[in-house]
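re the bet — no i am not wrong, look at it urself. input seq straight from the record:
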Amino acid sequence: MEQEGKVLTAAEAAEYGEFRRARRETEISFTLGKLLVDASRRETDRAVLRKACETFSKLHASGVLVSPVNVAAARKFFPKGEAQVSCLVGGTGESLTSVKKIEAKKAVRQGAKEIRLVLCYSQLAAGNVGYLRREIKRVRRAVRKGSLVVSLEDHSLGAREISLGVKAACSAKADAVCVRGETGLVLCAVQEGAGRIRVEASNVENAEQLRLLLKAGAVRAVTGKGSAIAEELYAALDAPETVLSPLPLQPSAALPQSVSAPTAPTV
């Protein structure tokens, strides 16, 4: 085998192959640590919730996203000390800010480490940044030390609304924004945020989409297909090196106190 003009012996080639595989396994572990397992859909029952928490533990993901009614139940399915619950509050976005504030405060009291706030989309469409800023600030105070992510994921939102939402989130001191899993929207949010806020992406369906979103600047991805993505990544271990090399090799953007990603799990 040749490496940069040098002919390797069989032993050296085998050692290099083991090194390359170990490096790729580490890259995959960090990448899976950027996933937020989605269990927030209204059809989520206890069986689905349990499976989501098991996926979190198996992949050493960032956390599990649930609706307000499942915060307490989700914590029971986590191994002791591993409860990393993110709660989606605000419903369709059109409820009163006072209602969203109460919802967020209760979720934190029940053990949620992070709140994902659905903004008032009618005010966002109208360009009322002042209203959005006040809404985020009020929920920010309710969350206290928890993390606050502003959801900009509705299919009605385009680049203009994403930019306005990111601007409001930055000025109101939110920790992150989350947009739909499209590279154009991620790039828009990253550009508007200009390093002042983290950008996340949702509705991630496969490993290739995940790779592109991370490359575009997303630091975390919301998905209901974490196990399938893990299988795709590990299946590519023996493929040419360029398949996995674009995946960022850096610590995951986990929820507060999240466990670090260990060696590769069996999927």
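see?? The chain has one domain: 34-241. told u. also The beta strands are 2-3, 6-7, 35-39, 63-66, 85-89, 114-118, 147-152, 176-180, 198-202, 220-223. so pay up
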